[in-house]
Amino acid sequence: MSLSLTTTSPAASILHPATEGAAEWWRNAVIYQVYPRSFADGNGDGIGDLKGITERLDHLVDLGVDALWLSPFYKSPQADAGYDVSDYRQIDPIFGDLDDFAEMSTKAHKLGLKVIIDLVPNHTSDDHAWFKEAIEAGPGSAARDRYMFREGKGENGELPPNNWQSIFGGPAWTRVDQRWNVDADGVKDTEWYLHMFDTRQPDLNWQNEEVREDFKSILRFWLDRGVDGFRIDVAHGMVKAEGLPDWDGTTGMVDGTKDEGKTQVQTDGTPDEDGSNGGGNSGPMFDQDGVHEIYRSWHEVMEQYDGDRALVAEAWVEPLSRLALYVREDEMQQAFNFSFLTTKWDAAAMRTVISASVRENDVVGAPTTWVLSNHDVVRHVTRLGLPAVVEGREMNPNGVRATDPQPDVELGLRRAKAATLQMLGLPGSAYLYNGEEFGTPDHTEMPDEYRQDPAFERKGRTEAGRDGCRVPLAWEADKPAYGFSTTGKSWLPQPETYRAVAADVQKADPNSTFHLYKNVLRLRREHNIGLGSLAWLDDFASSTEVIAYQNGDVIVVTNFADAPFALPAGAEILASSEPLVDGAVGTDVCVWIKSA
Ligand code: TEU
Ligand code: CA
Question: Which residue has the least CA distance to atom 1 on ligand 1?
Answer without folding.
Answer: 234
